[in-house]
Amino acid sequence: MTPSKEEFEARLRQIGAERYHDRHPFHGLLHGGDCTPDQVRAWVINRYYYQHSIPMKDAAFMSRVEDPDLRRIWRSRIEDHDGTDTNEGGIRRWLRLAEAVGLDPDYVASCEGVLPATRFAVDAYVRFVRDKTLLEAVAASLTELFAPKIHAQRIEGLLQNYEFADDSSLSYFRNRLKEAPKDVAFGLQWVLDHADTAEKQDAAAAALIFKTDVLWSQLDALYGAYVDPARIPPGAWQPGEGLMMQRAS
C-alpha cells in the first residue's frame, strides 16, 4: 500500500529535521560570531563553488525535460542565480559578499583554492541530477524546504556579530527568502504528485537524503580544514591568499 501524500510529505520533512546542515557545528560558530575572519573567508570561497554550480545543475536537468511547461517553470531557477537584465542574480550577490569579507571576487570566481571534498561533493550533485530520474532530481532540490530558516538565522547572526555584514553584503540571503519558497512550493507538489508508488517515494526520499549529505559533507570538509584542528589539504585556499589588497597592488 502506497502511503498518502500527507504521510509522504511528513517523511520528507522529517529527513530535513534530522539531516539538514543547519545542525552542523560550523553553522553554530558562524551564526554565533565565533568564526575568525579567515574561517568566514574559507566558507565564502567554498560555498561559492556550490552557488556557481547550481545553474549548471539546473541546465542539466532541463536538457532532459521534454515538457515545455516544466522547462518554463524551472528556467527561473537559472535566472535567479545567473541574473537577468533586471535581476543581478545570486552569483553576483555572493561575489559581493566575498568582497565584503576582504576577498578578491575574481579570485573567488576562479574557484581556485576550493577544497577537494567540496569539489567532489558538488560535482557529485550535478552528476546526480544529470543521470538520475527526473523525480529523483527534483526531490534532491527539496532541501529548499528547510533553507528559509537557516537564511533567517544567518542574516540575524551575521548582522549581530560581524562588521562586514550589511544590507549589501547579505543581499544573497535576503533574496533567497523570497525566491526559495516559490521554487520549493512547485518542487514539493511535483514530487508529491509523481511519487505515486511506494517505490518511487523511497527513491525520492533517498534522493533528498543524498542532497543533505552533499551539504553536510561540504561543512565537514570546511570544519576539518580550517577549524579543529586545521588541516588544509594541498592546493586548497591558504589564509592570506586572494585578498582585495593583492589585486590593488
Q: Architecture in CATH?
A: Up-down Bundle
What class would the helix/strand composition place it in?
mainly alpha
User: Which ranges are low-confidence, i.e. pLDDT below 50, for 5 or more consecutive residues?
Assistant: none
Distance between the termini: 67 Å
The count of helical stretches stands at 12
Order of helices and strands: HHHHHHHHHHHH
- Note the beta-strand portion: under 5%
> How many β-strand runs?
0
Q: What's the Cα radius of gyration?
A: 18 Å
Shape call: globular
CATH class categorisation: Mainly Alpha
Q: State the CATH superfamily name.
A: Heme oxygenase-like
How many domains?
1
Structural commentary:
The protein is an all-alpha fold. The protein has a single domain, classed as Up-down Bundle (Heme Oxygenase, Chain A). 71% of the residues lie in helices and 0% in strands. It has twelve helices and no strands. The chain has helices spanning 5-19, 25-31, 37-62, 68-82, 90-100, 105-110, 116-131, 134-140, 147-161, 171-194, 198-226, 244-248. The protein is globular. The termini are far apart. 34% of the residues are buried. The mean pLDDT is 95.
